Amino acid sequence: MKKLNLTAHSYEHYTNLSFTNLHKTKLKSAVQLTEMGKVVMADTTLKHLGNVHLRKGVIDPHFEVVKEALLRTIKEGMGEEKWSDEMNSAWAEAYDQLAAAIKAEMKAEAAA
Fold first, then answer.
1. Scanning 28, 34, 52, 103, which has its CA 20 to 30 A from the CA of 44?
2. Is the pLDDT of residue 26 over 80?
């Protein structure tokens, strides 16, 4: 698969769009995934995200709805002509990794 050229410059460009802090976190995750092959996030940030999602009653289907909305929003923001299957896959993978980390923290918080 062709590697997506998503860099810190891309992050700076897209944060000018009207993204929420959560979307900015997801964008940072996509940049990290592209540049390092993994997403690195502070344990305290993940614990906080897990705690907030648990308190708000977030369940698995909610993550899928947000994923689809995020992908559609980025696609619309970039424009059809710039969007590609590779870009969709990279964003989906970054989101899935972040969602999995948040879900793991939710599970740990619920068990505590």
1. 34
2. no
